[in-house]
Amino acid sequence: MQTLARQTPELETSPHLDKRNKLVIVCSKGSLDMAYPPLMLATTGAAMGMEVHLYFTFWGINMLRKKTVESLKISPVGNPAMPMPNILGMIPGMTRLATRMMRKSMDKMKMPTIQEMIKTAHDSGVHFHACSPSMQMMNLTKDDLIPEVDDIIGATTYLDLASEDAITLFI
Amino acid sequence: MQTLARQTPELETSPHLDKRNKLVIVCSKGSLDMAYPPLMLATTGAAMGMEVHLYFTFWGINMLRKKTVESLKISPVGNPAMPMPNILGMIPGMTRLATRMMRKSMDKMKMPTIQEMIKTAHDSGVHFHACSPSMQMMNLTKDDLIPEVDDIIGATTYLDLASEDAITLFI
Amino acid sequence: MQTLARQTPELETSPHLDKRNKLVIVCSKGSLDMAYPPLMLATTGAAMGMEVHLYFTFWGINMLRKKTVESLKISPVGNPAMPMPNILGMIPGMTRLATRMMRKSMDKMKMPTIQEMIKTAHDSGVHFHACSPSMQMMNLTKDDLIPEVDDIIGATTYLDLASEDAITLFI
């Protein structure tokens, strides 16, 4: 079966010169399920030779906090795609259960954890930027963040990066 | 009143040559309300002559599953824009009620269902791609998917499509 | 500390000619936390000299309604990044409490309210577009909207704007 890290050989040997080679993603969610997509795209982009920037803002900052990066959760309520009625999701412990179920699926697929993906992404050159107003709002300093964070930047710097003909996404 | 499928005549007769003519959308949500925006944009884009690609990942896969496409729901909790307190949203049956209310509004507007929109989009040339790691995570094979799905691709192929000067969105 | 409105001097004095100078954001959420990001990016983009368009659709219409713009809420449930168990979030009044807590953080940072940000954005030239099918679905007319709204447009016009080499985001 096709795996995430798979690389199309043609892409590596004959990159089209007119293609965009930059990927700039805003990461605004702090839940386990929405932490995977930006990291998957980032590592894939880096493997394809793209310059990749992740800009963490609002709840997304939780992906960069030493205190929370290991304990990102998935909510069993408010997401009708989860096969669990809201009333069950309310029972204390259900967020933990839903999170554990997702972690198990990930394990079975031999998917790396968020922390491992951050390390891999960082090692392959992905840039990690924390949003400064979000840091202020959450009363955080650089010491609260994992070492993979490159810098703390504002919206101006983000838009400057995004304006350089990048693929832009808000997750 | 202006309707969705309305086309600006100037656009059809004198397309600007320097305009981007490609639309590549990541569909990551499995709820009824977030199923409409990508399909609306896709059919509109196709009607404008754009090359349109939808890449379904994570919960978005539910839009492509035979088993779930007809029963996408909208959650009455965790969305403060819904005029219903969380405590009411917890009552069993409220997800069904909120969903039925939205379906009624859609009906009244003569809005097609998700399945009808998928058919229309497919008939007008919109490409439907399922994300392979998501399929693995959910233990699905091509047989579980509706016939409109073109193929199962990975993040590399998605990024390759997105890099061709497309309008990119993550929904 | 770096603030949101901070402008990189080099940007103002020597804009790169090949940079994209247009920002087109779809605003689809009606919650207080997801109302800030598009407005922050919009005002920052406008301050950098960009042409900025905000297209409000689905729940995002609530940001433009006279009746709701002052009372956007944040949900304490369904967002595992919020430090509150779902069961507590169910207690009547908790949405109000979570909203008040966020408003206080914003106040402490001297962050403007959503209404103030909309005014500032409008004054600095940001364009506010309401989505016509969403207006129909919610039974609204132009009179229900705040005066900063420029016009009511459909998906064709939105895609036309987005196709002009803009930075595109779906929030």
Radius of gyration of chain A: 17 Å
Quick one: how many beta strands of chain A?
5
Question: Ranges of chain A with pLDDT <50 over ≥5 residues?
Answer: 1-16
H/E element order of chain A: HEHEHHHEHEHE
Q: Report the CATH C-level class of the domain at 22-73 and 113-170 in chain A.
A: Alpha Beta
Strand order in the sheet with the most strands of chain A: 4-3-2-1-5
- Output mean pLDDT of chain A: 82
**SS strand fraction of chain A:** 5-15%
| Largest beta-sheet characterization of chain A | 5 strands, parallel
Number of helices of chain A: 7
Assembly type of the chains comes to: homotrimer
Q: Which term fits the overall shape of chain A? A: globular
Report the end-to-end length of chain A measured between terminal Cα atoms.
27 Å
CATH superfamily of the domain at 22-73 and 113-170 in chain A: DsrEFH-like
Which chains have the largest interface?
B-C, 45 and 48 residues
Helical residues, percent of chain A: 25-40%
Question: Can you walk through the features of this model?
Answer:
- 3 copies of one chain form a homotrimer.
- By secondary structure, the first copy, chain A, is an alpha/beta fold.
- The first copy, chain A, has 7 helices and 5 strands; from the N terminus they run H-E-H-E-H-H-H-E-H-E-H-E.
- In chain A, strand 3, helix 6 and strand 4 form a beta-alpha-beta unit.
- In chain A, helix 2 packs parallel to helix 5.
- The longest helix of chain A has 16 residues.
- Chains in contact: A-B, A-C, B-C.
- At the B-C interface, helix 2 and strand 5 of B face helix 4, helix 6, helix 7 and strand 5 of C.
